[in-house]
Amino acid sequence: MKTPSLLVFGGSLRAGSYNQKLAAIAAARAEAAGAAVTLVALRDFPLPLFDEDLEQAVGKPAPAARLKQLILDHDALVIASPEYNSSITGALKNAIDWVSRADTPDEKPAAAFAGKSAVILSASPGGYGGKRSLAALRSILGNIGVRVLEDEVAVPAAHHAFDEAGQLIDPEQSSAVERLVLSLIATLREKNPD
């Protein structure tokens, strides 16, 4: 049976991001379940704001090309999305916009995303746990051909949710993250039994 491969990242640039902590927890759970996991941080892919004139003048920035290749190399995505003003971060949207661009005239737009599976989760200091960002992210990913599993995890009061080691304090929240990644791995194994 093929080992499922997951690309995991948070949608924030902040060094102490709650969502990058949540992504790291999801990555560890997925790896323990037998998946091949690559955990990255968006801050390692610095990108200018998407501008078609810039793209035509100098091409795709190297960080966008690296991120696109990582997405192509993995079966699925695990994205932990902060909520900024009831939506996803500008950094996450910008990364998706750059990666979705075709590199050749015969490449379809968003080809790197087409046919991928994903799960989404969020952590926010607010009471909703970032759920509004998940609704926006689900819509964006679905529109570019990603199958986003129905289950999702939102962690409210994120400023109190993690211990000093970056683990979730609430065992129910921790279990929910584990169930989420296990469902993604199971879906991938059903999809690719060989």
CATH fold label: Rossmann fold
What is the CATH class designation?
Alpha Beta
Give a count of the beta strands, DSSP E runs of length 2 or more: 6
Name the structural class.
alpha/beta
Helical segment count: 7
**N- to C-terminal separation?**
5 Å
Report the principal-axis shape. Answer: globular
- Show unreliable segments: none
> Superfamily at the CATH H level?
Flavodoxin domain
What value does the Rg take, in angstroms?
16 Å
Largest sheet: 6 strands, parallel
Report strand %: 5-15%
Mean pLDDT: 96
Give me the strand/helix succession.
EHEHHEHEHEEHH
Gross CATH architecture:
3-Layer(aba) Sandwich
Structure description:
This protein is an alpha/beta fold and 194 residues long. The protein has one domain (5-191): 3-Layer(aba) Sandwich (Rossmann fold), CATH 3.40.50.360. It has helices spanning 18-32, 52-58, 62-73, 90-100, 131-143, 158-161, 171-191; strands at residues 5-10, 36-39, 76-80, 117-123, 147-148, 153-155. Helix 3 packs across helix 4 (90-100). The longest helix has 21 residues, at 171-191. The chain is globular, with a radius of gyration of 16 Å. The mean pLDDT is 96.
List the helices and strands and how they pair.
Layout: E1 5-10, H1 18-32, E2 36-39, H2 52-58, H3 62-73, E3 76-80, H4 90-100, E4 117-123, H5 131-143, E5 147-148, E6 153-155, H6 158-161, H7 171-191
Parallel strand pairs: 1-2, 1-3, 3-4, 4-5, 4-6
Summarize the structure.
This protein is of the alpha/beta class. Helices cover 43% and strands 14% of the residues.
Key descriptive features of the protein:
Rossmann fold; 6-stranded parallel sheet; alpha/beta; 6 strands; 194 residues
